[in-house]
Amino acid sequence: MSNFTFDEINLMCIYNTGTRAGLMQALTDMRGQLEPDEAELLELTDSALRKLGRITDEQFAELELVPDFD
Length: 70
What we know:
Layout: H1 6-15, H2 20-31, H3 39-53, H4 57-62
């Protein structure tokens, strides 16, 4: 399974819809709203989307999407 970074997990927690496909759509929608000066968030979103695209729905269901904003 792809190793998600701490920041990717937190981002996925914010946009998690409960399914891999739903999360990917939510991230894609959010990505379309980013401004040019949000390059770091764009890169983070693209990285998470690539990794989500490489895992199965079963693997997604095993992820512990618990935010850690400390």
